[in-house]
Write a structure and sequence with these properties.
The chain is α+β, with helices and mostly antiparallel strands. It is 40% helix and 15% strand. The strands form four sheets. Strands 1-2-9-8 form a four-stranded mixed β-sheet. A hairpin with a 2-residue loop joins strand 6 and strand 7. The longest helix is centred in the C-terminal third of the chain and has 19 residues.
């Protein structure tokens, strides 16, 4: 982080220490993890000019994923609806010049594809269709949002992007200001959108969108932290009621 980001992060931790829970090497930001999001990714292109999956490629995948993705690549390719593209993929392979660096097509990650009139990740679509765990397949950098991991003096802060964390989060303010997935308030006033697109009743706590990754990171502590988060949700509902 930059010196400015470190400063804002330290101020945030002091200001919100009552919402922080230690879980091994992780510092759990319960307030941020309960912030509401709706990752209606397959419909993102229908309501935004450009999605977060466009205009670049993921960070290189972890070494453990290289062999896994190479093994599944033929099957992922076979699930494309364009047979010519399937053949092209199988001919050119998944990697750019270096194993682990995913190839690009037309300025985007090669896995950003259209399917049935909607755009999204071909890896994720394949995992869902085959009822496989997406965690080992999909690049870590593509799975993290809206969560964030930030190294601090107190441990690794497991948080989510909010107005309060955006000053030091890798996600910055773009999602909050430009995408409906991160702002229920913006979605509520977007009356020009069809109700089923980023539906208001589809917003859920940030951590619920990343449960496999959340549980993978926290290991044996995951159940305890989920219980704490669920208790806070119930307390909030009781207060509102």
């Amino acid at each position: 982080m930059t010196s400015s980001e470190v400063y804002h992060c330290e101020k945030y931790l002091k200001r919100n220490k009552r919402e922080l829970v230690q879980a091994g090497k992780y510092l759990i930001d319960t307030a941020a993890l309960l912030s509401l999001f709706h990752l209606d990714c397959w419909n993102c292109r229908r309501v935004h000019r450009e999605t977060c999956c466009e205009g670049g490629q993921p960070y290189a995948v972890e070494s453990r994923q290289i062999l896994i993705l190479e093994k599944e690549f033929p099957a992922i390719s076979a699930h494309l609806t364009d047979r010519q593209k399937t053949e092209k993929w199988l001919d050119q392979g998944v990697w750019d010049r270096t194993p682990g660096t995913i190839r690009m097509e037309h300025g985007n990650c090669m896995f950003y594809q259209e399917r049935d009139g909607r755009y999204g990740c071909a890896i994720h679509a394949y995992a869902e269709q085959m009822e496989q765990d997406v965690l080992p397949l999909k690049p870590f950098s593509c799975q993290l949002y809206p969560l964030d991991l930030i190294q601090t003096d107190l441990g690794i802060l497991l948080t989510a992007v909010t107005k309060e964390t955006s000053s030091f989060s890798r996600w910055g303010t773009d999602y909050l200001e430009q995408f409906y997935c991160a702002s229920l308030d913006r979605r509520k006033v977007a009356t020009h959108l069809d109700a089923h697109l980023f539906a208001v009743d589809g917003y859920r706590p940030a951590y619920e969108w990343n449960l496999p990754l959340f549980r993978y990171l926290l290991g044996d502590e995951a159940k305890r932290i989920e219980s704490i988060l669920q208790e806070k949700i119930e307390q909030s509902a009781t207060t509102i009621g």
